[in-house]
Amino acid sequence: MIAMFFRFILVLVMISAVAFTAYLDRNRAGPISELEKCSLLLSRVDQPPADILILGSSRVGVAIDPVAMAELINSTAQYDDIRVECIAVPIAPLRTNVSLLEQYINVRGAAQIVVFEPSFLSKRSFDNLKYNLGESDPEQYIFTRDINFMTYSQIWNMPGVAMPFSRGEDLIMRLHLKLRGFVLRTGLLIYEFLHDPFREWSLESCNTQSWRVGGMDWSSDFTFIYAHSRHTRNLEETHYQYKARFETVFKDMPLADWQNTPSEIAMKPSDLEFEADYRLGEVKYLHKAISLVQDENSHVIVLPMMLYNQTLSDKDRLYLEILQSNPYDIFAETDSLLAPFWYNEAHVKPRPAGEYATILLSRHIVNADVLSDAR
Fold first, then answer.
1. Which residue stretches of the chain have pLDDT < 50?
2. pLDDT score, position 324
3. Helices (H), the chain
4. Burial 23-52, CB ≥16 within 10 A → b, else e
5. I need a labelling partner for 260 at 20 to 30 A (CA). Which of 72, 232, 324, 355 fits?
6. Distances in Å between the alpha carbon of 157 and those of 119, 178, 285, 315?
7. DSSP letters for 289-316
8. Beta partners for residue 342, in sequence order
């Protein structure tokens, strides 16, 4: 009788533990920054989807202002009530952003247009993680970080290993990562809850005017832009004004020491190598992101945020066009104009380069003429 009682208690405890972990999986995450927490909550909030959703890395975060974009698009003759949201997470978050996109669609529905940065892990990011964070295995560090954004279901359905510089895409490795992901997810969820059980997990706790600014040890001139620019002119007038400023006022501004001299500025093709074997796992994630959007009959724009002085190669552009992903190399026509306004080789400065990038993307979306909220 006593043995049966203890077995009953054990079963009850196990059921409660599973139910509690499932609750944490749906409603919280592991130990993430305030910026990352708010990005996750934006994908889970019980609200209708935005008309335009932008997902990417810190390159998108410092270059695209969703508030200014909405104002610019709504200044045109076609639109007056377009809503724009941006989810940008630092450090090559391809796996993270596919997970956030899937949660966004499952909870909120699909945006009319999804602008998706194919943020593949670069050798630059890989080396920077090793140097700046002292990580002996940067890809495992990123995998552990990504687990904080994923649900158990997403871990089980991971399409690839996506560790191009250290792991192959074999079945054993993928199964190993899934099992490791389950253990990590459970441990991180419990750790975060015990560490801060009363942390506010609602979008209302995020100050939408400032929450994108924090999250990393960046200097004051390198922040995610959010409502930095308020535009009173319409889109075309604003574009003309900014373009004129870059071509005249900013034309002869000096470059930073790490940049080429002006006479050597020439766009260089950068091969993201979508067809390379070592990119196979990341390409699977990119395919999944495009399919998630297209399955909802929405439009996807793949937005390669190239490094300074680089442009998308013809080979990679053709690959993205075959996928019907409408690639837009946003800096291809303006890199020489924006040259004085790069923070480093991967990020432009929010002002004025980020403001201009926001204008360019707004014009590209309006000219595509696929939004349905017409006057």
1. 211, 213-216, 262-265, 374-375
2. 85
3. 2-27, 34-44, 58-63, 66-74, 94-108, 123-132, 138-147, 152-156, 171-195, 235-247, 280-294, 314-322, 335-338, 355-368
4. ebbeebbbebebbbbbbbbbbbeeeebbbb
5. 355
6. 20, 8, 11, 30
7. HHHHHHTTT-EEEE---PPTTEEE-HHH
8. 348
**Cα distances (Å, whole numbers) of residue 11 to 18, 20, 144, 152, 336:** 11, 14, 30, 22, 66
> Is there a contact between 337 and 246 (Cβ–Cβ < 8 Å)?
yes
The total number of residues written for the chain in this structure: 375
CATH class in words for 32-118+198-368:
alpha beta
| d(C-alpha 359, C-alpha 363), whole Å | 6
Under DSSP, the state recorded for 122 is P
Tell me the two tokens of residue 141. 């560090």
Joined tokens for residue 82 = 């377009």
Say which DSSP state 38 is in.
H
Greatest alpha-carbon span in the chain: 89
Helix 235-247 / helix 66-74 crossing angle, nearest 10 deg: 120
For the record, the structure tokens of 88 come out as 């940008």
Q: How far is CA 78 from CA 34, 73, 299, 355, 366, in A?
A: 36, 8, 18, 22, 8
Q: How far is CA 174 from CA 143, 153, 170, 181, 368, in A?
A: 12, 15, 6, 10, 39
Cα 209 from Cα 372, distance rounded (Å): 27
pLDDT of residue 276: 81
Q: H-helix or E-strand containing 85? A: strand 84-88
Tokens of 313: 């190669």
Rounded to two decimals, the pTM is 0.90
Residue 119 burial (CB count, 10 A): 29
Provide the phi-psi class of 162: left if phi over 0, else alpha when psi is between -120 and 50, else beta.
Answer: left
Phi, psi of 275 (to 5 degrees): -95, 0
